[in-house]
Structures are given as C-alpha cells and as structure tokens.
Amino acid sequence: MKFNAMTAMAALMLAVPGVALGGPDDDTLIINGETEMTTKAPLPAHMEEANMDMIMSGWHFRSDETQALEMDDFDNPGMIFVDIGQEQWDTVEGTEGNSCASCHEGAESMAGVRAVYPKWDEKAGEVQTLAMQINDCRESNMGAEPYGYTSGQMANMEALIALQSRGMPVNVAIDGPAQETWEKGKELYYTRTGQLELSCANCHEDSYGMMIRADHLSQGQINGFPTYRLKNARLNTVHGRFKGCVRDTRAETFKPGSDDFVALELYVASRGNGLSVEGPSVRN
Amino acid sequence: MAKGVRPRVKVPKSADAGEVIVIKTLISHKMESGQRKDSDGNVIPRSIINRFTCDFNGQNVVDVKMEPAISTNPYFEFEAQVPEAGEFKFTWYDDDGDVYEDAKAVAVG
Q1: Given this model, what pLDDT does residue A279 score?
Q2: How many Å from the N-terminal Cα to the C-terminal Cα in chain B?
Q3: Alpha carbon A137 to its chain's center
Q4: CA distance A243 to A261
Q5: Choosing a second label site near A262 at 20 to 30 A (CA), which of A45, A236, B63, B98?
Q6: CA end-to-end span of chain A
Q7: Over 50: is that where the pLDDT of A17 sits?
Q8: How many CB pairs under 8 A join A and B?
Q9: Are B66 and B51 in contact, with CB atoms under 8 Å apart?
Q10: Residue A126 CA: distances (Å) to CA of A170, A177, A179
Q11: For every residue of A161-183, which 3-state class applies, written as one string?
Q12: pLDDT for the residue numbered A21
C-alpha cells in the first residue's frame, strides 16, 4: 500500500510539468532577432537571505502573445512613445534656447545611463532617479518647466533613454553614499502597508509565480520600465506602478517622486542587478 | 490636422514571385471614440481613422471600414500574395479629412 502510494505520487510529479499555473517559463527573449536579453540571473549578493533562487524579468510571467509583442520593435507599442520621446529630445524649450540635443547631441549618448540609475548625485547630495535628473536638466540647463513626475512626456523621455541601454545589465550602486537611501528602500520593501497588510515582499518575493486572482505575480522587477501596459495602452513609469501597487494594498500611497519612492526605486532596481535593461517592455 | 499621427509599415524588401508575405501596419492615432466627456461634462468630439486601404500596383488588397470602438494606435497585420515586383500603397483616412499615405516597394527574385 505504501509502495503504491509512493508510485502514484512519483507518477503525479512526472505528469505535472515544471511550470505551475502563473509560473515563469523558460523562453528566451531575443529582440528583433538579434539582441539576446538576460532575463534570468543569479541573485545579487545583497539578496542572499531573500526567499528566492534567481532573479527573473517580468517578461517570463506573461503569455506567449504578450511576450511576442516585445520581441519585435514594430510590434512593441512602446516604440511609438520612443518616437515621441525623440521629438521631445530635439525640441528647443525654455529660456536658455536649448533642447536635450543641444548638449547631449544624439540620444545614443545616453547609452548605459538607464542601467545605473537611481544613483548618488554628489552636487545635489541625494540619490537621484532618472526622472529627477531629466527634470534637473530641464530646469537648470534649459530653463524649462519640469515634466510631471509620472506624466506621459516623462515616460516618453525615459523610454528613449532606456532604449539606448537595451541589453546592458542593470548595475545600480548600493554602497557608499547611496547606502543609507538603499537601507531605507529595503525597509519599505519589507514593511506591510494598508488594510490588506501586504509588503512588496509578500507578493513579489514569497509568492511570485502564483496567481493573484486572475493575474500572474512576477518578481516585481523594474528593469523593463517604462512599461507599455495593455490594460491602459500607454507607457507606465516606475513610481506610477509603485503607487498602483501600494494602493492595491488599500493604503494611502506615497507620492510619486517622494523620498520614500526614490528609496524604494533604488532598492527594487538593485534587486534586478544583472538583468538586462528592457525598457520599453510590454506587459499586461 | 490631428496631432502625433504617424503611419508605419513593415514589408519584406523582396519576395519570390507568387510568395505570400506578411505585412504589418500601424498608425499612431488617439482614436477618440466620441463617447467620452471631458472634466466639464462636454462630449469630446469623435476623431478616428475611419478607413484603411492597401493596394498593390493599383489592385486592392484590403479595404477596411473602421468604427469608434477600435482602440488607440490601430494595428493591422495581413498576408498578401506578390505576383510580380511592384509597390504596396497604404492609405489611412482620418475623420477630419486628412489622408495619410505610405508606400513600400517589393522586388521579386
């Protein structure tokens, strides 16, 4: 009897494929048939105690159809916004008579930038996100109005800049002067919020690969931001997404661009150290 | 003229005679349905691409009538047989009377 039960169990285990419902797949992300992306990577050193084996891009948690949209730039609706971002890049605004291109020339000069942000800014004496740096440039060097932190224009510009780093590994610094902010972000990541009393980790570390009602829980990586979401047919920024997530725990959210979200962005970005920069990615 | 409208087309540069190729088209357009209201309660007027056509050497390939429920940035993917070298011509018709065009040549052999 005992033997039979064990045989039955073994047979059952064989019958169930390795991929559970909602779990990540083993597909390979190659964009335009030429750029192979690192979508799975070993845990960064600082995550040794985390309840997971490896880090994975959210791309693995999506259906084949959604995945395919990101594999060809023509099919990726996020590229429309990159084009608009390019127009913004070349447009002279503000009192100084400058566009982005006046100082930085082509957008290609931004290669590698997305991969290391958020990062410590010596002059400002704080950790700055890419969005803060863009607005700093607009205000100081262009004399132009800053973009809204999670606005469409900001997302377009971030998408254009992220694209220049496509395929490069995320590599944000968490030591030195950035460490204090990083610790704060980590604290936030593991702090339960809202009426549902959920921390980021409850879903994205403890339960990734499972279903949350009708949706798949990913690891909550931000290497693919800004992200084109099929649900709202536009680009979504990191802080916009954070806000949505915290709201879903039924909490009062932090403000996009606030110190709390900047710290959280640094911490979450560091959890993706080693994954390719994917933005603009396509998700549900 | 509606803002930010830009047609894009992806067609193989060459094909064998009689080969069936895949054509992808997309036009960035807000596709305002005419059903929505602004914050003051006024109806936002309808502004959509209402027709899309593709012709090959003067012969029609597809002719699509489009309706307000079609979402933003309409994308069409379809197959076409290439009997000879020639040019695919794509045309989008906007509610405001604008016509957007694009063309792609295909070599045979």
Answers
A1: 87
A2: 40
A3: 22
A4: 9
A5: A45
A6: 47
A7: no
A8: 18
A9: yes
A10: 20, 8, 11
A11: HHHCCCCCECCCCCCHHHHHHHH
A12: 63
Q: How far apart are CA B75 and CA B104, in angstroms?
A: 17
- Tell me the C-alpha to C-alpha distance, in Å, between residue B37 and each of B30, B33, B45: 15, 10, 9
Q: What is the structure's pLDDT at A16?
A: 44
Backbone angles phi, psi at A86, to 5 degrees: -65, -40
ipTM: 0.76
DSSP assignment string, A78-122: HHHHHHHHHHHHH--BTTTTB-HHHHH-SGGGGTTHHHH-SEEET
CA dist B49 → A144, A176, B45, B60, B69 (Å): 34, 54, 13, 19, 11
Q: And the tokens for A76?
A: 């990726």
Mutate to test the interface with B, among A32, A80, A86 (most CBs of B within 10 A): A80
Taking CA–CA distances from B6, the nearest residue in chain A reads A80
Angle at A111 between CA A110 and CA A113, to 5 degrees: 70
Full-model pTM: 0.85
- A47: helix, strand or coil: helix
From the CA of B87, how many Å to the nearest CA of chain A? 20
Query: Is residue A136 within 8 Å of A128, Cβ to Cβ?
Result: yes
pLDDT per residue over B48-98, tens digit each? 999 999 999 999 999 999 999 998 889 999 999 999 999 999 999 999 999
User: Both tokens of residue A199?
Assistant: 């921390």
Query: CA gyration radius for chain B?
Result: 16
Q: Is A127 helix (H, G, I), strand (E, B) or coil?
A: strand
Tokens of A266: 């640094």
Both structure tokens of B7:
């047609």
**Helix axes A152-163 and A130-137, enclosed angle (nearest 10):** 110
